[in-house]
Specification:
Length: 247
């Protein structure tokens, strides 16, 4: 039983959301704005044609069908990145925060060698849409979970995270959520929040093999502050923050 409607904040969380921005949160936003969105002309040209080539190599039937039935979203850099990681690292367990076409892509690749993905979503209506169109052949590979999101302080940062029990170990984590809550009018306003699921897993003792984000540059200072023992870098090539444990 969930304690509050999906995709909403509790009264305590609403109080947290309305509190003034901290100096650290302001700095994280400034860092986000400081990252150039594109390369200079020469590198942008190389990156564009490399992406076109990589997209042409990414031929996944179930992913294409799901995309056409829902978002009609093309391969894109994030899917190329995920496909590259799964093909090279062969993770057995993947945790994804924010369900979508990436879930189908990873499930399609993981099924080839028996890997599994657990994917969390906060929007009840979107979750139902995904369930409606999700390929039946991939349902044993993908565990789709509708989950509440919570907002709390992690040091000087407000973190938003899904309500779940962190696992003992996970090979790959993909962070594409949670987003701000839109489940009711009271919760649907812009407030400072950074994705804290990886932080919660670290605090719970989860052994994390590798993690990436979808863009989200503002998380970088948050992770640097809250994830001791990890090598954290941002990649303009992949438009991602990349997190690895320091061995």
């Amino acid at each position: 039983m969930h304690k509050k409607p999906y995709d909403t904040l509790s009264a305590k969380e609403l109080d947290i959301a309305r509190m003034p921005e901290t100096a650290e949160e302001t700095a994280s936003l400034a860092f986000n704005q400081s990252i150039p969105r594109e390369y200079g002309f020469g590198m942008r040209h190389i990156h564009y044609y490399w992406r076109r080539y990589a997209e042409s190599e990414l031929q996944l039937t179930q992913t294409r069908k799901f995309s056409e039935a829902t978002t009609n979203y093309g391969a894109g850099l994030r899917l190329i990145h995920l496909a590259h990681l799964i093909k090279t690292r062969k993770p057995k367990t993947v945790y994804e925060f924010g369900t979508g076409v990436s879930t189908v892509l990873m499930a399609e690749l993981l099924k080839e060698y028996g890997g599994k993905i657990v994917s969390f979503e906060q929007s009840e209506s979107y979750y139902e849409s995904v369930q409606k169109h999700f390929p039946d052949s991939l349902r044993e590979t993908a565990d789709l979970r509708l989950a509440n999101v919570n907002l709390d302080w992690f040091g000087s940062y407000r973190g938003i995270y899904y309500d779940f029990e962190p696992p003992a170990e996970v090979d790959l984590v993909y962070i594409d959520g949670a987003t701000r809550t839109r489940g009711n009018e009271e919760s649907n306003f812009v407030y400072r929040r950074l994705n804290a699921d990886l932080i919660r897993m670290h605090l719970a003792g989860t052994k994390i093999g590798h993690a990436i984000t979808d863009h989200r540059w503002a998380i970088y200072p948050f992770y640097k502050d809250q994830l001791p023992g990890y090598n954290i870098k941002y990649s303009r090539w992949w438009k991602s923050i990349i997190i690895d444990p320091i061995n």
